[in-house]
Amino acid sequence: MANRRCPRSQLHAVMRWGLLALLVLFVYWDNTALRTDSLTYTSTALPAEFDGLRIVQLSDLHNREFGKNNQRLYAAVKQAVPDLIFLTGDLVDEYAEAPIPYAKAVGKALSAIAPTYYVTGNHEWAHGNAAVEELKTALRESGVTVLSNQFVPLERNGQTIFIAGIDDPNGYADQTTPEELAAKLYAQQEAPFWLLLAHRNTLFNGRYCRLGADLTFCGHAHGGIWRLPFTDGLVDTNLNLLPSFTSGFYHCNDVDCEGAEVFVSRGLGNSPKWAFRLFNRPQVAVITLKKG
Fold first, then answer.
1. Measured between alpha carbons, how far is 139 from 87 in angstroms, rounded to an integer?
2. What is the SS3 assignment for 208?
3. For residue 276, what is the DSSP state?
4. pLDDT in tens, 153-212
């Protein structure tokens, strides 16, 4: 008599495969379904004319596509109705074969929605200095303001704030330092309200927090990649276990930084590709500045 598989064993096998399929579908959704997070930053120092200014921050795209030609991403940004868009580094991936056309397409689409500002991340510089300069030129031609250790004023009805941006430390050895940039800004205005774009969250404590910016915008950590309960993520992009400063608002830990604050984006892409996200959907961050 031929052996027959126990119906219960067959049921268990079907359940196991079904659970595996559900897990695969969840991970796919968790890595492709955009999440828009709306947050508020309140400061008594904010000039009244900028009360309600809406900023969309996008970070760590790593050449990702959300829908054909990134249409889902652009739709999410449009829906946020931003006044400004900040791109805080790793727009392209170090393993990408065609980073320039991708960056140019993203820059053109975003700058058509709102004024867009960009700083480099570590992945851009992995392509070499010449490629970075080509990328910056492509972005400028697309309408993006590239901030390479520079600052620019933003004026409304006679009141001014400043937007500053720092190139990634992997850039030129003789580039303007963050401290030199801050000194130039303070030489122009004694007590400015200013926003700082700087890719690496790991450099906020101990360095960027000392520059005096009212709010710093960072990325780099990918939200800790796997966001487990009661943690800031399991591991960051530098492979540090249980990292901190990976998602949301944080105050500087240094006692002499006078309440310096940073917002860290969880980012959008994955790098390398196998470093999939878990409980950590790609983020479109919308920060509204409020005077208070």
1. 11
2. helix
3. -
4. 999 999 999 999 999 999 998 999 999 999 999 999 999 999 999 999 999 998 999 999
59 in Cβ contact with 90 (< 8 Å): yes
Q: What are phi and psi of 260, to 5 degrees?
A: -55, 140
- State pLDDT tens for residues 36-57: 999 999 999 999 999 999 999 9
Assigned CATH for 35-291: 3.60.21
Q: In this predicted model, what pLDDT tens digit does every residue of 258-290 receive, in sequence order?
A: 779 999 999 999 998 788 999 999 999 999 999
Give the integer Cα–Cα distance in Å for 169 and 222: 18
Joined together, the tokens standing for residue 239 give 């492979």
Domain ranges of the chain: 1-32, 35-291
Whether residue 272 has a cis bond before it, omega within 30° of 0: yes
Q: What are phi and psi of 220, to 5 degrees?
A: 80, -35
The whole-model pTM stands at 0.94
User: Quick one: DSSP state of residue 176?
Assistant: P
d(CA 77, CA 113): 8
Question: What 3-state class would DSSP assign to 223?
Answer: helix
Q: What is the DSSP string of 95-155?
A: T-S-HHHHHHHHHHHHHTTS-EEEE--HHHHTT-HHHHHHHHHHHHHTT-EE-SSEEEEEE
Residue 273 has a CB neighbour count (10 Å cut-off) of 11
pLDDT of residue 1: 46
Phi, psi for 285 (deg, rounded to 5): -95, 130
In this structure, what token pair is assigned to residue 187?
Answer: 């030489």
Structure tokens at 283: 């983020």
- Give 4's pLDDT tier (boundaries 50, 70, 90): low
Residue 54's alpha-carbon distances to 130, 218, 236, 284, 288, in angstroms, are 34, 17, 28, 13, 4
